[in-house]
Amino acid sequence: MTLNEFIENIDKPGNFILLEGKREVAGCDMEKLIALGRLLASKTKEVIFRSGNADGSDQLFSDGVASVDKSRLQVIVPYSGHRKKNNKDYATYSLDEISLLEEPEVVLQTKSHQIGERFLDSYLAGENNRFTRKVAYIARDTVKVIGTSEIPPVVFGIFYDDLKKPRSGGTGHTMNVCLMNDIPFADQTEWFKWLEE
Asked: Which of 9, 33, 109, 169 has a CA between 20 and 30 Å from the CA of residue 134?
């Protein structure tokens, strides 16, 4: 898919695009993530961009979008105040303000990840330890894709992945949630080409 085809298909009111990926970004790729965020925000008018506000890919993509129009940047965080000074969003939703017990699909799909399967029930019961803190990030990643009763799902995901260990960790979980829900996505093997068009 070319950039123009992507824009034509995606730039519609009510559409959300996920921009996210690994915390570790190769130095030679950093400017490309910023450039893609800037390019997509410049070439679209309707879509809202969603991020998880993590360091690395999320931050770089968001920097690009915010440099054009921060009012079209939405962030979903694992807890209130998460990296607040780096958050360039217009709207933030915090996982601790969402009643996951009323979101059965979020619970089910979070449990598809091994950390979610083992520790989500403890997190939902209010336990606070290093494992339940990790599961908050996995649940946040699920919500970023499928949304909740109050947050719309995304229609497309754009990822910066570790191509040596593809689809691993939280980014891998987020990609798997896209797959489970038939939400198309692209990694840098595709979108790097958009920067050359």
From this structure: 33
